[in-house]
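Input C-alpha cells:
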C-alpha cells in the first residue's frame, strides 16, 4: 500500500501542472521576485508590468516576441547588466534570479521544485505561454 503514495503524489503534482509547462523556478523565488520588482522596477515598468514611457512591457505577447527564442540565462544576464536602468548591476545575483522567476511566472510559466540558477539553458519560449498570470496586478498592488 505504502508504495503507492509516491505514485499518487506524483500524479497529483502532474495533474496540477497539466496544460502549463513547468518552469525552472520555485514559488518562493516568484514571491521574493515580486517584492523586488515592487522595490526596484515598478516605478518604470508599471504595476501591471505594462511599461511606462520608454520602459518596455514585460508581459504578454511583447515579452514572448522579445525573449521567446532566448534562454533563461540570457534574460538573467541582460537584466543584470542593464537593469534597473538607473543603477544597473546593483542587486545581488540571488535577487536577479528571483526577478527572472517572477517575470517568467507573470508570463504564464508554472513554478516547480527546482530553484532557478544563473546558468539555466531552458528556452523561454518553451515555458511561457504569453498569457499574463491573473495575480500579477493584484500581487503587486497588495505589495505596494
Ligand atoms: C529608471 C527606469 C527603469 C527601472 C527602474 C527599470 N527599468 Fe527595465 N527598462 C527601462 C527602459 C527604459 C527599458 C528599455 C530600454 C532598454 O532596454 O534599456 C527597459 C528594459 C527592460 C527589459 C527589456 C530587455 C533589456 O534588458 O533591454 C527588461 C527585461 C527589464 N527592463 C527589466 C527590468 C527589471 C527586472 C527591473 C528591476 C530590477 C527594471 N527593469 C528596472 C527602464 C527601467
Amino acid at each position: 500500500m505504502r508504495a503507492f503514495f509516491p505514485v499518487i503524489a506524483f500524479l497529483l503534482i502532474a495533474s496540477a501542472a497539466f496544460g502549463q509547462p513547468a518552469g525552472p523556478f520555485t514559488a518562493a523565488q516568484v514571491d521574493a521576485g515580486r517584492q523586488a520588482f515592487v522595490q526596484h522596477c515598478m516605478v518604470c515598468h508599471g504595476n501591471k508590468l505594462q511599461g511606462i514611457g520608454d520602459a518596455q512591457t514585460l508581459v504578454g505577447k511583447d515579452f514572448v516576441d522579445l525573449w521567446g527564442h532566448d534562454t533563461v540565462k540570457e534574460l538573467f544576464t541582460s537584466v543584470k547588466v542593464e537593469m534597473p536602468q538607473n543603477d544597473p548591476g546593483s542587486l545581488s545575483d540571488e535577487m536577479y534570479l528571483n526577478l527572472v522567476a517572477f517575470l517568467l511566472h507573470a508570463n504564464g510559466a508554472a513554478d516547480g521544485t527546482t530553484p532557478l540558477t544563473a546558468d539555466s539553458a531552458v528556452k523561454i519560449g518553451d515555458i511561457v505561454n504569453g498569457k499574463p498570470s491573473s495575480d500579477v496586478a493584484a500581487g503587486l498592488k497588495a505589495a505596494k
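The radius of gyration is 16 Å. Helices lie at 4-17, 27-40, 42-45, 61-67, 72-82, 93-106, 124-127, 135-143.
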